[in-house]
Amino acid sequence: MATAAAVAAVAVVVAAALLMAPGQTQPPREGPPEGSRVGSHGEAVERNPPGRMDQALLLVRNELSAQGLRLATLSGSCHQCLYQFLTFVPPSNESLTKPGMAVVMVDTQHPLTLLLNGSESDRELCKIQYHFGEFGNYSLVVKTLSTSTKTVSCDLITNEGPVNSYLPILYAFLVYMGILAILIIGCLLMKIDPVRNWVCKKLNPRETDRLINSELGSPNTTDSISSDPNPRFWSTNSWQRLRSLDTFRGLSLIIMVFVNYGGGKYWFFKHESWNGLTVADLVFPWFVFIMGTSISLSMSSMLRWGSSKWKLLRKILWRSFLLILLGILVVNPNYCLGPLSWDNLRIPGVLQRLGFTYLVVAALELLFTRAGAESGTLETRCPALQDILPYWPQWIFILVLEGIWLCLTFLLPVPGCPRGYLGPGGIGDFGNYPNCTGGAAGYIDRLLLGEKHIYQHPSSSVIYQTTMPYDPEGILGTINSVFMAFLGLQAGKIILFYRDDHKQIMGRFFVWSIIMGIISAILTKCSKEEGFIPINKNLWSISYVTTMSCFAFILLLLIYYLVDVKRLWSGAPFFYPGMNSILVYIGHEIFENYFPFKWKMQDSQSHAEHLTQNLTATTLWVIISYLLYRKKIFWKI
After folding, report:
1. Which DSSP letter does residue 147 get?
2. Residue 610 known to be catalytic
3. Which of 16, 96, 324, 389 has the smallest number of CB atoms closer than 10 Å to its CB?
4. 542-559 and 243-260 helices, crossing angle to 10°
5. How far from 495 is each of 222, 293, 569, CA to CA, in Å?
6. Cα separation of 580 and 257, whole Å?
7. What is the pLDDT of residues 3-55, one digit of tens each?
């Protein structure tokens, strides 16, 4: 039954899909899809095969004999963008027996604005806003209503209704919820003594009493203090581990694996094209946050049990080096450009940012930690700030870092770009700054690392049609990832200072969440595009960090309450991948294209097949992590 519990891992992922904001899309393509045909008068279009994913078929019928038409489109998710020419529609003949026609594919992920202009006069004839449905079949009929006033009508007709592409998500959600219900019933049955005794006798499970230290500084517990000076937690009765931290890490990791595998090819499981948030934008900062929390707890414990600072510093340097090395040589997306060589080696990356962030935050904690601070023996003028005031040098360091980020972002001169530019470039900002993607952040990466050594296909390239390479894990954004980990470090200090005072811990988590939320509201003006500093994962803007930390404090509060305070939830199945996070992350990247994580699909344009494949692959990693946990196999660096 415990192994079956692992398959519930992605139920939260499926549910979260229904809650998130729009993400990136695909550009419209000219011409009819394969297998389509247009009737003699354009009244019906037969599709076999059904067409392309996230697109619909649009027949434009021009009944104007005097002029041809130019059709342009604008995506509703493209902020301050230029209209993009889609197709030319020829005029009809003078007798109107043969109207001019053109067949195009249009995007269905976001609402579109269709703009029709005359090909000769360039006069705007009509503008239509519409959200097309996937695999739908539509006709746009343009004709003259009045020859005297030259009034033109544009009627959009649905020839064939779209499919409901979200049904696979609903089915998957119901399946996982059904499995979860079965597991809950099983747990209730296990509370009955005869049933529990019979199951224990048959299975003879081995309890995992010794949990080794997770790879990014997670706290640990052991029976022998002298044999392993790793982090421990206090309790009135016995030493115990805070399972909520590994549960939080595992939740973030499992969502990350799912979206990296494709998320069923749904737009809300892809990274936002520029400003805003999707499901995919949540998980990396949460992982960074909980890394900071684990640093605080593990380092405090190791120092308390006699480890020297020099020994810890060597361990920090070695662990950071390994993370960066693994990121550059093993998990490198530029493999797709051919054999990995220095000519196309991507230097930034997820593991590289984790390694550098870990190095800075862990060294900062090691350097400024004060003996007796966490035990409450140091006197402070303000007891309410006893988890902050002893570490004022750390706060000054972080504030200086943020000052550097602000100065570089808004004051650094970038050739050909306005100072303080935070936009995507391309066709954004009405096409005025096409080569300014990312402003100072992109410029610094291209200047110091070189264009070939950063990410070549940023999420902005689809909607905003940017051509400049841009790396979302670049140099400037790493400053704010350090800030994110430092906020997680603060969460760890709260746990240390208030120990088993659960109300104080949860109360301070809530207060920090409110503070971060207020800062985000001010910076963004509670809008997606119009704030002083919009929420932007590509830039890792300050507002992005404060928003994600707001969510992280609340989520950690809830998990801590359910798992460690009330013990209503064991943390399964997320707890298991959280205990082996580096193994799962690197493993899912290396074996991404191998069976059983991927196989040849019958219909590559089916969300259902993609979702089945991605959920299967994600669930397999949860099961693998559970089996490794049972075998006491943990990979730490």
Report:
1. T
2. no
3. 96
4. 130
5. 20, 9, 19
6. 13
7. 333 434 334 333 333 333 333 333 333 333 333 433 333 343 443 344 678 89
Which residues 6+ apart lie within 8 Å of 40 measured at CB? none
Burial class (CB in 10 A: 0-12, 13-18, 19+), 161: exposed
User: Residue 375: CB partners within 8 Å, gap ≥ 6?
Assistant: none
299 touches 362 (CB < 8 A): yes
In whole angstroms, give the CA distance from residue 372 to residue 296. Answer: 14
Q: Rg of the chain's alpha carbons, rounded to an integer?
A: 28
Burial per residue of 196-214, b for 16 or more beta-carbon CB atoms within 10 angstroms, e otherwise: eeeeeeeeeeeeeeebbbb
The three-state secondary structure class of 12 is helix
pLDDT at residue 227 greater than cutoff 60:
no
Q: Which domains does the chain have, with CATH numbers?
A: 29-167 (2.60.40), 213-630 (no CATH)
Predicted pLDDT of residue 336: 55
Instruction: Flag the least confident range among 138-152, 227-241, 581-595.
Output: 227-241
Cβ-contact 582, 216 below 8 angstroms: yes
Tokens standing for residue 504: 């104080």
Cα separation, 391 vs 389, in Å, equals 5
Euclidean distance between CA atoms 464 and 80, whole angstroms: 10
Pairing mode, if any, of strands 55-62 and 137-146? parallel
Q: Can you read off the two tokens belonging to residue 270? A: 């892809």
Angle between helical axes of 581-590 and 243-260 (0-180°, round to 10) = 10
Q: How confident is the model at residue 526 (pLDDT cuts 50, 70, 90)?
A: very high
Q: How many C-beta atoms surround the C-beta of residue 164 within 10 A?
A: 10
Number of H helices, E strands in the chain: 17, 11
Rounded-to-integer distance, Cα 235 and Cα 504, Å: 16
Place of tokens 């219909």: 603
Whether the upstream peptide bond of residue 90 has omega within 30° of 0, thus cis, is: no
Active-site residue identified among 271, 588, 607, 610: 271
Distance CA 237, CA 500 (A): 11
Q: Which residues contact 265 (CB under 8 A, 6 or more apart)?
A: 53, 54, 607, 610, 611
With beta carbons less than 8 A apart as the criterion, state whether 431 and 82 touch. yes
CA distance 337 to 441: 24
**Which sign, positive or negative, has the C-alpha torsion 227, 231, 236, 237?**
negative
- Strand 151-160 relative to strand 36-38, pairing: unpaired
User: Which residue has 């703009």 as its token pair?
Assistant: 115
Phi, psi of 571 (to 5 degrees): 95, -10
